[in-house]
Amino acid sequence: MIDRRRRRAVYLQIADDIADKIRRDTLPPGADLPSADVICRTYGVGMTTAARALRELEHAGLIDTEPGRVAKVRVPRVLETVWLEPGERVSYRPADPDDVERWSLPLGVPMLVVTQLNHWRREYPADRFEAQVPRPDTRPRRSGASSD
């Protein structure tokens, strides 16, 4: 499980192990995570190491935490699609404090940035939106479009 001789920090090994349990559905979406005390006993580490492992999972977007509450495995949202127009480009950036407040973002969620050639941009939280390039036969029709 944890190998103290490895170069990878112990808190990252713990985060990797818990992340693996999340990916394998051993800890399904919405499940309570073990408390820092339980992590300490399970992995034989101190409270600081356990807290760093939980913080790592939160920053990776795998868990949600609230002060005074049990950390939970993040429940994935159904993503809304942002359809890209010709010439638009997609990138990501870290969320800033204004984004976190405006969108009520959990830690670790980046912003999806859609930029047009004229540098006009639209930004969306990446935990709620995905960008797609429509294939010609699946392009959504705009309201008021005529069907020839």
Describe the fold and architecture:
By secondary structure, the chain is α+β, with helices and mostly antiparallel strands. The chain has two domains: 64 residues, Arc Repressor Mutant, subunit A (Orthogonal Bundle), CATH 1.10.10; 53 residues, no CATH class. It is 28% helix and 18% strand. It is built from four helices and seven strands. The strands form three sheets. A three-stranded antiparallel beta sheet has the order 4-5-6, with no helix packed on it. Strands 1-2 form a two-stranded antiparallel ribbon. Strands 3-7 form a two-stranded parallel ribbon. α1 packs across α3 and α2 crosses α3. The radius of gyration is 20 Å and the shape is elongated. The protein starts with 9 loop residues before the first helix and ends in a 16-residue tail after the last strand. The mean pLDDT is 87.
Number of domains: 2
| N to C succession of SSEs | HHHEEEEHEEE
Give the radius of gyration: 20 Å
Total beta-strand segments:
7
Mean of pLDDT: 87
Return the CATH architecture of the largest domain.
Orthogonal Bundle
Q: How large is the share of residues in beta strands?
A: 15-25%
CATH superfamily of the largest domain: Winged helix-like DNA-binding domain superfamily/Winged helix DNA-binding domain
Q: What is the first-to-last residue Cα distance?
A: 63 Å
Structural class: alpha+beta
Low-confidence stretches: none
Helix content: 25-40%
The shape is elongated
Classify the fold: give the CATH topology of the largest domain: Arc Repressor Mutant, subunit A
Question: Which helices and strands appear, and what pairs or packs with what?
Answer:
Blueprint (H helix, E strand, L loop, with lengths): L9 H14 L12 H8 L3 H13 L3 E2 L7 E2 L6 E4 L5 E5 L3 H7 L7 E5 L5 E5 L3 E4 L16
Parallel strand pairs: 3-7
Antiparallel strand pairs: 1-2, 4-5, 5-6
Helix pairs in contact: 1-3, 2-3
